[in-house]
Design a protein that fits this description.
The chain has two domains: 337 residues, TIM Barrel, CATH 3.20.20; 310 residues, Alpha-Beta Barrel (TIM Barrel). Helix content is 42%, strand content 13%. It is built from 27 helices and 23 strands.
Length: 766
């Protein structure tokens, strides 16, 4: 039987970010639901048609989402938290977006669901809220409607759905429910929804359905694996169902492999790029006789071309260990930019080393053809591919001898501050003279239409560099005066000159290349355009000192210098794969260290080096945690340890669970830790209670990813919760994250309330 080709999922944002524009128009009341849904239909039709015309056999559907695929599954199962007052039945779009963003309108005031990172990616998912009273019922037609939509176009698809075990294990205990609530105890209630989905798809003569169970690439307990086996024994026994492929991605399946081999399902999807050990598991523990192996050999998460010859070798070997073989991507291509051909200004040599989602679809098609018709059928593609790979291996542009010499001289002494924190704290307090519960923000302020237009005009040559800088200086002064008016204690300059917290710095470093249209979804309508690290990283000159000096000249209050840390620079870029990531991170650490030194020399007393991605980079398997945390923490400390005791180092972490890496957070040795806390209603405080924490902490009291404006009393109550765990002198008052994506009216109202909350609690403490 010939090998088929498959894509696990395709980007849903549209080649020109059509979904973002349509969604935000809908939120502003400028577009109807019908108009939004038409944009969705147009994107889906274009995606399906492209994959069909490219020769893909098994094309996904239901991989499209207006916000998040986990939220889609919450809606499908009717697991709507009680505060949204869902009456049952179909979950409408207004309820759907209220769960994602919160809602504050005409007497309605509900918070959004918690959001956190999707495994070790920079994508965020909405966290299911589960408890003993959670009930499930089929409450969305989306999966059926989209399959029918594709069929009407003459395209048969594979409906994709987050599997039941992953849905539960990716959740959290709902408000008022003990943290150790066994979410898998809900499996018997949830499975009837999946059985009904399978029955309806089977009745529509769907051939395959894809159930994603990525939690199986994490360390799983025997109880987890037993529940997984029980769930799929039941789903596998469903009558007249489609064939089921259970897909995993981002790592190897480890102890779950024997369970997966024995499931009564027809297909198993494994990642052979990030999960190279899956090949060894098949060799050591036996093949997949009686099953179809969906072999994920094309990387869905980076931008580098596939080694087609090596992949063919692997596929031919794997074909001997399964009844049938399907050539597939390692994961959904939603983590890849859409089309390399749209990058008309990209350096041709570097571009020849790269492939985006549409090009990766082509790679899948080539590999399937090579398997089925022999390598001579794709001889031209193999020759071109081999030439590009060799060109990258031998290019002098990827290595800088000066960078490598400096890296070789790096020692542990470069990662240590001169004094311990208690001594530093005394020196910093004497210099800064801050009050109890000092107020600050994380960094950015709203990037208005005027700011974005000025940046566009600069790029187009319609605005001179000096005129652009003048506009940005005016915006900096506006932000400084605004903060002074609020009564802030530690100010920021607002970052109007920065397009992105990674790209802005990357554009001033050697070793990076940039795109114009390579957007990927971070969450909802928030898309990012990661820069690409192709060679050794070097900071040729100061990047931020001029802006910091100007901002500080406008006020007597301290203004923070704002930098992005080396780990986040690494994680939020597309990273070269021709050397260990730790080596690239150390190069970035040295570049940031030089910038920290320049800011200190310029008289900046507080320097914030943000590392929101440090938890995100944690390997999915615990046996690799120590190695990663050692080099990640080392890199942060190299970047920040070259300053005097009187210079305060702050850092910002967000949207991750930190309880299991508290020792590493201690080891970062930042003077002040600013951390997301409001969406989870200060849940992270339990980590500080359990582990203890010596340094100062700003647990965010204002959720900036929701448009609702929290009251002063609501934020004051969050501070009171913090004081139950931390000493008042340890606590800072700040939002969860930067304010770049918010509008000025809501920001002004929220920050005034935040400053008032600090005053309220200070008066109570006095």
């Amino acid at each position: 039987m010939p090998s088929l080709s498959n894509i696990s999922g395709f980007p849903r944002i549209g080649p020109e970010r059509e979904l973002k524009a349509a969604t935000e128009r809908f939120w502003r009341g400028e577009a109807s639901q019908d108009e939004l849904e038409q944009v969705g239909r147009d994107i889906r039709r274009a995606n399906w048609t492209f994959m069909k015309e490219s020769g893909i056999d098994l094309i996904p559907s239901n991989d499209f989402s207006y916000y998040d695929q986990v939220l889609d599954t919450i809606a499908l199962a009717g697991a709507v938290p009680a505060r949204y007052e869902h009456p049952g039945g179909q979950v409408g779009l207004n309820t759907y977006f209220a769960m994602a963003r919160g809602l504050q309108d005409e007497g309605v005031d509900v918070t959004a669901m918690e959001m956190t990172k999707w495994f070790d990616t920079n994508y965020h998912y909405l966290v299911p809220e589960l408890g003993p009273h959670t009930e499930f019922a089929l409450s969305s037609e989306k999966i059926f409607a989209e399959h029918a939509e594709a069929r009407a176009l003459g395209i048969e698809t594979v409906p994709v759905l987050v599997g039941p075990v992953s849905l539960l294990l990716l959740g959290k205990s709902a408000d008022g429910v003990a943290e150790d609530f066994d979410r898998l105890s809900l499996l018997d209630r949830l499975l009837p929804v999946y059985e009904e989905v399978l029955a309806r798809l089977g009745a529509s003569n769907v051939e395959w359905v894809q159930l994603d169970e990525p939690v199986l690439v994490q360390d799983r307990s025997p109880a987890d694996l037993e529940a997984f086996g029980t769930a799929y024994e039941r789903l596998g026994a469903a009558p007249k169902r489609p064939k089921i492929v259970v897909k995993t991605y981002f790592d190897h399946v480890g102890e779950a492999y024997p369970v997966l081999r024995g499931l009564p399902v027809e297909g198993l999807g494994l990642d052979f790029h990030r999960g190279e050990h899956n090949h060894q598991l098949i060799h050591d523990l036996g093949g997949l006789e009686g099953k179809t192996l969906f072999a994920g050999v094309v990387d869905g998460r980076n931008v580098w071309i596939n080694d087609l010859t090596a992949s063919l070798d692997l596929l031919e070997h794997l074909g001997a260990h399964a009844d049938d073989l399907v050539v597939s991507t390692s994961c959904s291509l939603q983590h890849s930019p859409i089309d390399l051909d749209a990058e008309t200004d990209l350096d041709p040599e570097i571009g020849s080393w790269m492939a985006f989602a549409r090009q990766k679809v082509g790679e899948i098609a080539f590999l399937a053809t090579g398997l089925n018709e022999g390598r001579e059928a794709i001889a031209g593609e193999l020759e071109a591919n081999a030439g590009a790979l060799e060109g990258r291996r031998t290019s002098s542009r990827t290595q800088n001898p000066a960078v490598r010499e400096r890296l070789a001289a790096l020692t542990d002494a470069d990662s240590r501050r001169a004094s311990k924190f208690p001594e530093r704290r005394k020196a910093q307090q004497a210099k800064l003279g801050l009050p109890l519960l000092p107020t600050t923000t994380i960094g950015s302020y709203p990037q208005t239409a005027e700011i974005r237009q000025a940046r566009t005009h600069l790029r187009q040559g319609r605005l001179g560099l000096e005129e652009y800088a003048g506009k940005m200086r005016s915006e900096v002064e506006r932000v400084i005066r605004f903060q002074e008016d609020l009564g802030y204690d530690v100010l920021v300059h607002g970052e109007p000159e920065r397009n992105d917290m990674v790209q802005y710095f990357a554009e001033q470093m050697d070793g990076y290349v940039f795109t114009q249209n390579a957007w990927v979804q971070s969450y909802g309508s928030r898309y990012v355009r990661p820069p690409v690290i192709y060679g050794d990283v070097l900071r040729p000159q100061a990047m931020t000192a001029e802006w910091a000096i100007y901002a500080q000249s406008l006020t007597e209050k301290p203004v923070k210098g704002m930098l992005t840390g080396p780990v986040t620079m690494l994680m939020w870029s597309f990273v070269r794969d021709d050397q260990p990531r730790s080596e690239t991170c150390k190069q970035l650490a040295l570049a940031i260290r030089d910038e920290v030194a320049d800011l200190e020399a310029a008289g900046i007393a507080i320097i914030q080096v943000d590392e929101p991605a440090i938890r995100e980079g944690l390997p999915l398997r615990r046996d690799r945690w120590e190695e990663y945390l050692d080099w990640a923490v080392f890199c942060f400390r190299v970047a920040t340890s070259g300053v005097d005791d009187t210079t305060q180092i702050q850092t910002h972490l967000c949207y991750s669970d930190f309880g299991d890496i508290m020792a590493a957070i201690h080891a970062m040795d930042a003077d002040v830790l600013l951390v997301e806390a409001s969406r989870s209603r200060m849940e992270l405080l339990s980590d500080f209670r359990r582990e203890g924490y010596l340094q100062e902490v700003g647990p965010g009291v204002y959720d900036i990813h929701s448009p609702r404006v929290p009251s002063a009393e609501e934020m004051a109550e969050q501070l009171r919760l913090a004081i139950e765990v931390l000493e008042p002198h340890q606590i800072w008052v700040n939002p969860d994250c930067g304010l770049k994506t918010r509008g000025w009216p809501e920001v002004e109202s929220s920050l005034r309330n935040m400053v008032e909350a600090a005053r309220l609690v200070r008066s109570e403490l006095a």
